[in-house]
Every structure is written in C-alpha cells, then in structure tokens.
Amino acid sequence: MSALTLCGDIGGTKTLLGLARDGELQADRRYANADFPDFAAVLATFLADTQTDAGQVAGGCLALAGPIADDGRSARLTNLPWEIDSVALSSRFGLPCLQLANDFAAAAMGAVTSAPAQRFTLQQGEPLAAAPCLVVGAGTGLGMAIVLPQGDSWRILPGEGGHLAFAPADEAQAALWAFLQRRHGRVTWERVVSGPGLAAIHEALTGAKVAPQEISTRAAADPDSCERRTLELFLAAYGAFAGDMALACLARGGIFLAGGIAAKLLPLLPQSGFLAAFNAKAEHAAIAARMPVHVATDPLLGLRGALRLART
C-alpha cells in the first residue's frame, strides 16, 4: 500500500487537515482554532482522530495564512498568534519535514485546477490560455495570488494586495474610508473586504455592531434592510478590488474568487454591484469585460491545493 501525504489549510479561524493516497483525499477534518493553544495541538488531535501512525506519512504540505520565512521552514500566522515550525513538528511527531506554503498559493492552485463543476461563472469573458490567472478571496483577511501557466503546470506568485490602500469610488465609500481612518489610521482593502470589514461597514452605516454571519443572513432575508445596504457596499468594494488587481496583472486567464465569503454570498452575487465595479475601469473597461470571473465553490479548495503543491 502506498504511503500517505499530509495536507493542511490553516486560516485565522479554522484548520482543515487531510490525508491523501495516490493524489486522492482519503480523510479530512475541520477544527476551530479557538479550541487549541497552537497548531501542534491540532495536528496531534487529527492524527488521533484518524488513527494515523506518523510512520505512514511520506511527506506533505501545510498551507497557512501568513508569510513564510525565507528558509521555508517556519511561518507566523497573520491573524492568529501561532508560529508553525516544520522542523519542530517533524521532531515532535516523527514526520518527514513538511513543506510550508502561503494559504493563497494553495487556494490558487486549487482554483485553477478545479473542475468546471466546482466553479460558478459570473462573467464568461474571452479567456486566453497563456495569460495569467488571479485568485482573490475574502475571509478573515483578504488574500490574493497570481498564477502563471507553465506548460502542464503552474507557477504561483503569492501577493499581499489586500494590504494596499483602499480607494473609495463614491461618497458612501469615502464616508466609510473616513470612519476607518479615524479608527485605524491607514485604511487598506482588507479593512473593507473581509469578514471584519463587513462588520465595520455595517457599523459605519448604522452605528450597530453585528457579526458578519448575522449581517449576511439578514441581508439575504430582506432586500430592503440596512444589512442589504451593507452587503451591497461590501460587494461593490470587493468587485473594485478584484478588478484593480486583475488589471494590474492583465489576468486574461481568469479571475477566481476563493475564500468563504464569496461562496456563501453566491445567491446574491449575480444581482449585486460586484461585476459593475469590477468592470468600471474607465478607458480599460473593455479589457476588464474580457476577463472571465468565476467563484470557486469547492469547500476543500485550499486542502486540495496544498495536496497538489506537495506533489510538485
């Protein structure tokens, strides 16, 4: 029997871990990070839950929401005080030294290699096979990666576009910028286009502090609610960000929306202002309109992407 590959998708709020054999997932588990003091505790629980002997694992890849150290051996999560050290994990659990990757590198690999059935197309566009693709995704934070086709494989270029300065497009967004500037100083796209950003938009518009999930639920139930106004502003900002990043790298290969928020808002996306904001690029609007835009719907996208990275 062939050896196992361990793969992981470690975000700010949750961790997905999986075991694969011959490139196919055999088992996966989801854990809430708040229930654990560090990643080692999550991994120990996963190995126990799946009754896995570390000696069965031949290698793997952990994708995580934070920058990887230059030596590739350690990383610190951006939105969680966890440090992951592949050498320390290998020593503690008797595992091979695991590859570490940025979570959006894994999401990008998972998105561009996903089956058509795992995509919802918002804009058909006119794709060019040799052109770059772009993956963006709002969740706990706002991630992005550029993907370059290289024959039968892909080269992933992770980026930090979510930390660029937010550019208001109208008076409502300018008022939001002023609200956030008073609170944070520099206002980045991630302050707006993320789960915390959704809550901040609602607070700026209404003065009320409401959890992002509750905002989404109320917005879906009542199109005339203040929560729907919040969501419309959020989706317009999301579209503007995605369009700006796509224009920066001429992503004619396609734009993929990953992260948990886009999939959850899928019923509202086609009728929202997302695409109008995506395509509102003045003299370059025709270029934006030729870019395909898809929502990646596979809930294990990052996990499958990490598995593919482990095999490259």
Task: Give a verbal description of the structure.
The protein has helices at residues 39-49, 86-93, 103-112, 171-184, 195-206, 212-221, 226-249, 259-264, 274-279, 285-289, 301-311; strands at 4-10, 14-21, 24-32, 57-64, 74-76, 83-85, 99-102, 119-123, 133-138, 142-150, 153-159, 254-258, 293-296. The protein has two domains: 4-103 and 301-311, ATPase, nucleotide binding domain (Nucleotidyltransferase, domain 5, 2-Layer Sandwich); 107-296, Hexokinase, domain 1, CATH 3.40.367.20. A hairpin with a 3-residue loop joins strand 1 and strand 2. Helix 3 crosses helix 11, helix 5 packs across helix 7 and helix 6 (212-221) packs across helix 7 (226-249). The protein has 312 residues and is α/β, with parallel strands linked by helices.
